[in-house]
Amino acid sequence: MKTVLRLTICLLIFSMNTANCQSKMVTIKGGTYIPLYGRDSMQVTITDFQMDVYPITNAQYLEFVKKYPKWKRSQVKKLFADDNYLINWKSDTSLGDNQSLNAPITNVSWFAANDYCECQGKRLPTVDEWEYVAMANETMPDARTLETFNEYILGWYEKPKTFNNDIGSTFKNYWNVYDLHGLVWEWTSDFNSVLISGESRKDVDKDSNLFCGSAAVGATDLMNYAAFMRYAIRGSLKAKYSMKNLGFRCVQDINK
Amino acid sequence: MKGILLLLTPMFFIACSNDTKKADVNAADIQVSQEMIAELTAPPLVPTPVGNRKAKKLIVNMEILEEEGEMTNGVKYVYWTFGGSVPGSFIRTRVGDEVEFTLSNHPDNKLPHNIDLHAVTGPGGGATSSFVAPGHEKTFSFKTINPGLYVYHCATAPVGMHIANGMYGLILVEPEGGLPKVDKEYYIMQGDFYTKGENGEPGLQPFDMQKAVDEDADYVVFNGSVNALTGDNAITANVGETVRLFVGNGGPNLTSSFHVIGEIFDNVYVEGGDLLNENVQTTLIPAGGSAIVEFRVDVPGTFILVDHAIFRAFNKGALGMLKVEGEENKTIYSGVKQEGIYHPEGGGIQAMPNGDEPEAVASTTEKSLEEKIESGKQIYMQTCFACHQAEGQGIPNAFPPLANSDYLNADVKRAIGAVVHGLTGEITVNGEKYNSVMTRQSLSDEEVADVLTYVYNSWGNNKTNVTKTQVMEVKSSH
Q1: N or C end of chain B: which has fewer CB within 10 A?
Q2: What pLDDT score was predicted for residue A213?
């Protein structure tokens, strides 16, 4: 009840507010796809939705924190954000010296990211939604089998300190969405539904829908390795964790 | 009196059960007393031996860093490391220690990591309990039950990639009372690397997954880079000292045929366990395995450490150096006593330098430059290629380059001399110091002229046409 109330208040405040801090969204046309290292029987259907073109920036999050003081670093509940929360900010409401206003916000917990999206009348994308949009390159909705595409992704995984680059500094994909690869990792609403344990070699035994063992055993192509690393990072997270390389963006359902 | 008795009793007990598995079972019951922060060292150094210390609670703090480093001159690589080095920090424990292990993943890192220590008895060797996101840390503890030298490595998906990027190291569990004392101890670990560009291609080289799957290594190196154990980074000892090498192999793919040129291992703890083998020339170290080798150095000189799968040593970087200083011992190794010419049909040994062989003099007509270069190239590939390499680039810190070589271009006679007489001692080539041995090459005057003409007319050298006459002059002037 309290949540609903809070949400309503959020929405009210939001609708009264000017729309300029609202980030630009594009429509993603739904479809059916097989998630990385899935089998034919594991097709996932995505319905149409809207997605932020860019990850949320430092500037946008700064506004958010000013409006919702409970997400200030000094006031945040430890249950909802660990000690790394906004750790590089100079104070509750000012960025660190080397942080760019247009760089993606990082060092935020899942709780914070989730609340941010809710307060915009949006939500975090699911893993399936995120992966669906992220398999597109500049020209194709599904570029996962392209060697160059996977090399680009793997190349980023090895590149240090990309979190302070400005949003929009990577490529615009088929859906007109930027920065899914090459800037920061992104929170998803159900990040912890992926059954990857700390012992990844053991995971090949797990017969789970999301993490198909038998396919993973033969995972020798680059596509699977890129995916492995994303699933690994999600598997290592807890909702209160804040990380220097982890930001988020929001999505919205399309009301029909 | 009573105290001594008490002290003796457990010693007896251990002595009696020494050779059985029972000793291991007992190790789990060893009581720990105090706490101690573990000394961690970057290769090639190792921490202080445990000696007689009692089992303790040992605090190990290990930090994971993803950082750019140098594979070889001009070639950069992003290494993932335990403690900032490849291989990772050396951990030294004794049987019965209770290790409290904290793994910290630096906030700047992009990936989650964990650690699987082969010294751990438990699921995943600690991997399950140590899986840690960037900017976080995990602590777990284990008891060291079995003595031996163990590999540790990262086991996060994709496991092969984490290992291929350098995430491995060694943890030593010493037996009660420690390993026997030696004079010098070093830490060496082999690893294979897979880069987008071929061996030697400059710039920042990304990891190449396909090559790793194909087990087609571009670099096979000791201690993470081509030059980690050569030149100024060579390990050292003095004549008469006993050297112990803790040798590991991180893989991810290749098995090492570890050998030290000019030494015989007096002792090898086979695969890092209890089995002791003596008088070993080359010991096999599996990927994810280790060996402890010990030898007394009796004569001075530079001893080359190699993976005796020899193309890895001379072409991919699996080469290190042990420099031994001290008095010569002519009984053990004489050095060159006499040089001569060998005639299989008889004629005995003839002394240099009256090497004006009749056959060589017989053909007096000088070949054309093209013919000489063509013949010289063949001789080069048979005789010189192994050390000076296909493009005359040499091997950094071991064998000087012939390409663009100021040393060659400055003095033709000196170059001829090196081929016909051999060359030892320090020389400077293109600003780098080399101190190796080039043996005298058994080539005819004509062949020497041809091969040198080929070298001088390749790779940016000054196009000198070396004649047979010049070769003969150098020979007789000596």
Answers
A1: N
A2: 35
